Amino acid sequence: MRNRIYLCLAHMSGKEMDYIKEAFDTNWVVPMGPNVNAFEEDLEKFVNSRLCDTPLDKKVVGLSSGTAAVHLALLACGVGPGDEVMVQTFTFCASSHPVTYLGATPVFVDSEPDSWNMDPDLLDEAIRDRIVRTGKTPKAIVPVALYGMPYQIDRIMEVAARYGIPVIEDAAEGLGSRYDGRVLGTTGEYGVLSFNGNKMITTSGGGALICQDEAAKKEILYYATQARESYPYYQHEHIGYNYRMSNICAGIGRGQMTVIDDHIAHHRHVQELYCSLLEGVDGVTMHRNPSDRYDSNFWLCAATLDKDLHVRGEEKAYSAVISGAVGGAAGVTHTARTAVTDCQPDNKVEALRVILDEANVEARPLWKPMHRQPVYRNVPAYVNGVSEDLFRRGICLPAGPYVSDDDVRYIVETIKSAIY
Ligand SMILES: *Cc1c(COP(=O)(O)O)cnc(C)c1O
């Protein structure tokens, strides 16, 4: 039996333990320290590199998670109770949940079919409508680089400038992806990165916020460390959070930064291999860079199944309640009440997922759009059908550092033998 092929497993460079050992040897086993500073410098060098024009000078703050980074960016944009924030609906919940932590409401915006990310025209329309309906301008705009694919940041910035709204780029999945040669997360007011276990690089758990300058970085640091004032005792004038990155986690991050370029190159290589092996296979379409302005890291490789394709066993799909949550969620499972919901992938997508699972390949549906999540039943949404259609027809395939050429050939053969 083959070893199981996972979507995206963490892969160590071998240097991580050296940095962790250094943290222990120097007794920096706390949420700050030399590894945190050095990891932030590594990240700054990485995100500031441009393929054109003059270099950037963005600052980076290491945090305990990407979710924390979204939360603090929203806070710094002044989001508070009663406010609205425009969020891409086609995303993981960490893009929108922090809006609710602040007592504000996400307003969901659908995607355009090329990048699968926030549709700038629909965003414009939605903002105009919110201003008419509520008399208030939304406080922030959150586009998301789904599976690493860049959003149309130039057009989103144009719309944002028209209304004076800051943009928070959720590049949690898009570390190292570029649009017009510029690293994602460096164009908007803030850029979110994630180093969770399954992301492009890992610190076990962790995240970072890319800030415009040193002053913005200081403000984020203040809120990430319980908003302490400079007194010999604890004086609090604002509510803060315990969101700083641990010096141990940052040690892992420093090791990972030595292989980040290799990781990205490998993800791109795997994507190209899927594309060439699936060339000429009717009904299975890989998600690709829509033009040469886009340069995705292909964190996960996504495919869509055409309407008239069939998959063996599709008539039996969804016949039983699934017992484990997607992604394992750190072993936390919450038993499903029903085998089906009113918005789910087509039967053939589920049948293909099961066939791949039985062949020891982890595959998973695309993100379920937030405007179709029961928890967001009552929030406003501006939709065009794109994300829901992709959710019904799409599937994510393994792409991580451990996926070999032979694995990709095996996965493609498994897919070919499952369809008719
Ligand atoms: C992973 C992810 C996040 C949050 O990152 P964590 O580090 O897991 O908190 C935010 N947005 C998107 C789109 C993500 O995929």
What do these coordinates show?
With 420 residues, this protein is of the alpha/beta class. Helix content is 34%, strand content 13%. The protein is built from 12 helices and 15 strands. The chain has helices at residues 16-25, 34-48, 66-76, 97-101, 120-134, 153-163, 214-224, 247-257, 260-278, 347-358, 386-393, 405-418; strands at residues 59-63, 84-88, 105-109, 140-142, 168-170, 178-179, 182-183, 190-194, 207-211, 284-286, 294-295, 301-305, 364-365, 381-382, 394-397. The protein has a 4-stranded mixed β-sheet with strand order 1-9-8-5, sandwiched between helices. A 4-stranded parallel β-sheet has the order 4-2-3-14. Strand 2 (84-88), helix 4 (97-101) and strand 3 form a beta-alpha-beta unit. Helix 1 runs antiparallel to helix 8 and helix 5 packs parallel to helix 6 (153-163). The model has no long low-confidence stretch (mean pLDDT 94). The structure holds pyridoxal-5'-phosphate. Pyridoxal-5'-phosphate (PLP) binds at residues 65-67, 91-92, 94-95, 144, 170, 172-173, 194, 196, 207.
